[in-house]
Fold this sequence. Notes:
Layout: H1 3-26, H2 33-56, H3 60-78, H4 81-104, H5 113-134, H6 138-144, H7 158-177, H8 186-199, H9 206-231, H10 241-249, E1 255-262, H11 265-272, H12 274-288, E2 296-301, E3 304-310, H13 314-329, E4 332-336, E5 341-345, E6 348-354, H14 362-378, E7 384-386
Parallel strand pairs: 6-7
Antiparallel strand pairs: 1-3, 1-6, 2-3, 4-5
Helix pairs in contact: 1-8, 1-9, 2-3, 2-9, 3-4, 3-9, 4-5, 4-7, 4-8, 7-8, 8-9, 11-12
Amino acid sequence: MNSSKSIAINIAIPLFISFMFALMVFNEAKIPKIIFNLVPYLFYAISALILWVSWHFNRNRFIFVITPLLLMPLGFEYLDAKRATNLFLYVSMLFPLHFLIFLSLKERGLFSIWGIIKIIFFVLEIVVVLYFVFYPNDELIALLKMKIFASSFYPLEDISVVIGIFVLIAMTFLVVFNRYMLYNSSFLVITLTFYAGLYFIKTPYANKLSLLAIGVIIFILLIRESYRLAFYDELTSLPGRRALVEDMAKLGMKYSLAMIDIDHFKKFNDTYGHDTGDEVLKMVASKLANVSGGGKAYRYGGEEFVLLFPSRDADESYKHTDILRETIAKSPFSVRNKSSQKTIYINISSGVVQRSSQDKDPFAVMKRADNALYKAKKAGRNQVVKA
């Protein structure tokens, strides 16, 4: 899936969810009250699921995102009016920054050194907020309530709006320029939904429904993230071997595939280093992802890739694979080091086969494609052999 399509999906789905919950808020009179009474329990239930799945799949950022949202309603419910107002001020300022910080940090084990640092930071956040809620500083509160805009965003303070704008811009930057953040573009909508819940906090059920919407969005995002980890290669963003096996099991009787290998990749790694080798893999993967003819690219492992062509014969697949081979061979690749920059060219070899009646299973087809690839290597590399 290309980047722009991924971003669009990860924004469109949360927007739809938030819109549906917003309709509930503004059509309260038409909805049985029992449904609204269930909202807090549904939020706690889905939050428990998020915590469990996050722990199970080592997606710890979601733990740090959902936990403060679980604590926030308790503060609003059990604190007196003055302290709840102070909590509202700090929450509206700090939670979006909290989202941004934990969203931008790489995943680490919860009890690794970095994980423990995150836990300590998170606990300190809570302690500091509670301290200023229970021991308010009038000068600080007056400063935070300072007017910046001519218009009023009541009950949100201007400083909260400024921070919100900054966080949204920063998240947009992360999504656009960091490919690892593509699946987290949903947090743009989560932040907006969070602010909407605070802005309409005096509207019955608005804040509770906004939290439930955020919980649903995070849960869907978590499931999709877990699917991506299971079926997609982290380095190249191509579907991995498991996805290939799943897709081949769905194919009909007619299909073909191309087994692809980067020529002299081991020697390249030894000469220029593994970091540069990774860049080569990403470059080749980006070219293969744009395969024509209805093909789909997979990273099979190491420097090997597979192109799968449903309902195509070997002649058609050969043509589209050879076009890719030529495209890659003509694409300059810059190797940079501390003192100089060198331009080189990468070549690939490929073996193309079509499923036959003698093939007992998809693995037999892949074995024949691997044999054809071996022939391409023996014949001098930088070519496609059809078997």
